[in-house]
Amino acid sequence: MKNWLTRFLCASLACLVGATAKAGDGKGKIIHKLELDIRSSSIIPTHKSLRTNDTGAPPLLTRLGAAAFHLKYGFQLDPESSLGRLYPYATQGIGISFNTFGARKELGEPWAAYLFQTSRIAALAPWLSLDYEWNFGASFGWNPYDAEENDRNRIIGSKINAYLNVNFFLSARLSRHCSLRAGVDLTHYSNGNTHLPNAGLNTVGGKIGLVYTLNPPDGLPYRYARATEEAYPSDFWHRVSYDVILYAATRAKGVLLADNSVYIFPAHFGILGFNINPMYKFNRFLKAGLSLDGQYDETANIYTNGERRPNGDPTFYRPPLRQQIGVGLSARGEFTMPFFAINLGIGHNLYYNKGSLAGFYQVLALKLSVMRDLFLHIGYQLHKFHEPNNLMLGVGYRFHNL
């Protein structure tokens, strides 16, 4: 189901908009911000077709250069509210962007809709700070690979792709309402193996932007309440919460045949999985723990005996169910902020029958709070540190939540 990512993005946006109504904890006002920024980047090669071309035409990379134009709305919690005191510089919201790569025929000129969150890393002066921002969403309007009509694009196989971005920048206060931002920008586009090819597109470059605060807090723009830590119980187990997550997705599958040709299955396959993840809360920003991970992958260990169908396609067979299930243990770290948490993990399958489920796997996931203990889970799994595996779209519930 290629629209899963789009539906999850829409649900995430709805949850964030709904959260603004209660963001101030019933105290004070919400601070509203508008931002316009421009980003110029270079392409990082992810596939040999970006550097070489077997058709005799110039390599695609010789004329690729990325540019993006972003418009964002964000809100900040009242610095005097309880959450505002814990996270005095956090701003979160929604954004849209127009993107071009200098190859409109092959790649298209996609636009993106995304969630974002930004906050301070360090204050360098009363008017200057070092900040970070992440963006997560979906990009639309790509011109995907087609063997007959668009064979030069061998990196993007779908019209809709995930959009992931992180940028680090200096923020300089120009006036009570305006700030100037400039820094470095890293972006990744891919579809989580829902379609093939899926080499993805990566860019690195710079950004410059202007932020306008519609209703800055009274007094000096950066006179925020001093950040305060929550009072946590001293007992170890009182600081432990338990996240239980169920997720699903679809993925495409390609295999290498005996003659070294690649065959891409015309159908899509199912993914089902779970995570049981105890996490110890060190402070308001950081959690860490272990996760028991189980996943059923309908594509795992599919094989062929060399037979061909009447149309010439190879004949493939599915293995027994036990060869398509993996259960592993992963180490997890989680960065927590208002409304969002970013979860990173590295694990190894402990139970697997053979083949493609062996080895290490890695997880990157975004958790978006729907209610105090209920959250949406949007994740991506890699295999053996470099092979894209599958999306992880689901819901989670947090037990014993502090």
Outline the fold blueprint.
Elements: H1 4-20, E1 31-44, E2 66-76, H2 82-86, E3 91-100, H3 104-107, E4 108-125, E5 128-142, E6 160-173, E7 178-190, E8 201-213, E9 240-251, E10 254-256, E11 262-264, E12 269-281, E13 286-297, E14 303-308, E15 314-317, E16 325-336, E17 340-351, E18 360-369, E19 374-383, E20 387-399
Antiparallel strand pairs: 1-2, 1-8, 2-3, 3-4, 4-5, 5-6, 6-7, 7-8, 9-12, 9-20, 10-11, 12-13, 13-16, 14-15, 16-17, 17-18, 18-19, 19-20
Q: In total, how many beta strands?
A: 20
Q: How would you describe the shape?
A: flat
Q: Structural class, please? A: mainly beta
Cα Rg: 23 Å
- Poorly predicted runs are none
Helix content: under 10%
Helix tally equals 3
Provide the β-strand percentage band: over 45%
Strands side by side in the biggest sheet: 1-2-3-4-5-6-7-8
What is the rounded distance between the termini? 36 Å
Average pLDDT score: 86
Q: Let me know the largest β-sheet.
A: 8 strands, antiparallel, barrel
Topology as a string of helices (H) and strands (E): HEEHEHEEEEEEEEEEEEEEEEE
Q: Characteristics of this structure?
A:
single chain; 8-stranded antiparallel barrel; 20 strands; Acyloxyacyl hydrolase; signal; hydrolase; Lipid-A_deacylase-rel
Outline the structure in words.
With 402 residues, the protein is mainly beta. Helix content is 6%, strand content 54%. It contains 3 helices and 20 strands. The strands form 4 sheets. It has an 8-stranded antiparallel beta barrel with strand order 1-2-3-4-5-6-7-8. The chain has an 8-stranded antiparallel beta barrel with strand order 9-12-13-16-17-18-19-20. Strands 10-11 form a two-stranded antiparallel ribbon. A hairpin with a 5-residue loop joins strand 14 and strand 15. The protein is flat, with a radius of gyration of 23 Å. The two termini are 36 Å apart. 37% of the residues are buried. The model has no long low-confidence stretch (mean pLDDT 86).
